[in-house]
Amino acid sequence: MEGIYLDHAATTPVHEDVIQAMIPAYREVYGNPSSIHQFGRKARKILDEARRTIASSLGAGEKEIIFTSGGTEADNLAIFGVTEASEGRHVITTSIEHHAVLHAVQSLEQKGYDITYIDPEPGGEIDPEKVRESLRDDTVLVSVMTVNNETGVRQPVERIGEILEDHEAHFHSDGVQVLGIENVDVKEMNIDLMAFSGHKINGPKGIGFLYVKEGVPLTSRLYGGEQERKRRAGTENVQAIKGLETAVKLKDDTGEDTVRQYRKFKSLFLDTLRKEEVSFDVNGENAVPSIVNISFTGMNVETLLTNFDLEKVAASSGSACTAGSVEPSHVLSAMFPDEPERTTNSIRFSFGLQNTEQNVEEAARRIAAVCKRLTK
């Protein structure tokens, strides 16, 4: 029985074109990009070209892109970098953020910052008016993710950006789950800082980047050299950056077709579960095509995941960072405070490069068989 991977929101397989782009960079480019000799210049050229490619994809300037080790570092650099460089002591975020954001602001809270956590509406979206109502004169940062990593619900970041246009607070968004699913234009979205990760778009792990609007104050979190215009010390990961650039190009070239395919996968998956008479509810509204979070009536998440794995179907209980944890999902707890059972019977399925219509349908049949067996 062939394994079926439905956990692309956790990580994605590296695209073959990405691998092929990285191989010559490993074999032929070994100079330090900070060195002025020909070997260093060769490495620097890769960084410069990748920075231009990525900036162009986002509607940003190349000086506004900082390479990091991934989405977590990018989120942390944005949150700590802005708050340490500013005088305000109030931060607004949501209760459904990725832990890279939540744990960072909790650390600020321990240092005396005042944090406002906004809960989502039942459909999983944040009400932008609650952000407006929470703003204060000393609000220095607002952090709201673009797409929730557990439910796939798209947040109204454009509306929040409009609200913040006349306020001095800086607007940060975790954009890890939106890249490759939607076209991102940071200027149109009125976003000051946005974090991204390579391994979510069929690029290599260990590489990401942070968009920082020119003029936004940012204190470096790492002490060392003057790389990334003194904003992120450390020798750049040239080979991974080449892979990241290739993944972004692939995303730009195939994005619309890919999203249509994911939409088809999701419909086929849910329709098959219904035909098999599985009892379930979808958690969240206005979710991106690549993610669906399902509450299975009367089930237990650990039992489900174990049995899905035995049937060679890979899925997740939510964030990959909490996989294996028996703690209820903080996202679903915030969305369904009066329905605690949803926090213990919900599974996230996410579609991507490893999927076909055939294996998506087959996965739904295997899942249905597990549910029927467990209810007997």
UniProtKB/TrEMBL annotation:
Coiled coil ranges: none
Entry EC no(s): 2.8.1.7
Cofactor: pyridoxal 5'-phosphate
Catalytic activity: (sulfur carrier)-H + L-cysteine = (sulfur carrier)-SH + L-alanine
Domain of life: Bacteria
UniProt KW keywords: Iron, Iron-sulfur, Metal-binding, Pyridoxal phosphate, Transferase
InterPro entries: Aminotrans_V_dom, Aminotrans_V_PyrdxlP_BS, Cysteine_dSase, PyrdxlP-dep_Trfase, PyrdxlP-dep_Trfase_major, PyrdxlP-dep_Trfase_small
Pfam families: Aminotran_5
Protein name: cysteine desulfurase
Lineage: Bacteria, Bacillati, Bacillota, Bacilli, Bacillales
